[in-house]
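quick one before i forget lol
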Amino acid sequence: MPKREDYIGWDEYFMGVAQLSGFRSKDPNTQVGCCIVSEDNKILSMGYNGLPKGCSDEEFPWNREGEELDDTKYAYVTHAELNSILNYRGGSLEGASLYVSLFPCNECAKAIIQAGIKRVVFDSDKYEGTPGNRAAKRMFDAAGVEYVPYSRTGREIKIMI
């Protein structure tokens, strides 16, 4: 019997893990997931956007707008990319790839560069052209971090839990 030919590729697999991680986010508007992978296709870390450890999801705001920054989620939420970097306990991330459902902001771009990650595969770039997005791409270009859009296959994968 020949081997199965309809298995998913590495990019599909890792972006699927990133997307699945995003389902852990409590954010009512934006759920972002991330998966960091070694050069030999081993998953090193995962993360999603959420509050720091010890901060209750019930006690902090999830609002997008407020009179002051601290009335909104933006003062408190840690992005998926930074959570993935901080969740890693194995040593260096030098040369790794990062799969993320939303293109990294300029702050996450700094952390990605400092961690030594060399490739970013992103699904959505919904903030393309904004100042933070332009800054992230400028830093990636200067630091030699490749960023490539994920090529959707159109395959539907259903997970029954």
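fyi The mean pLDDT is 96.
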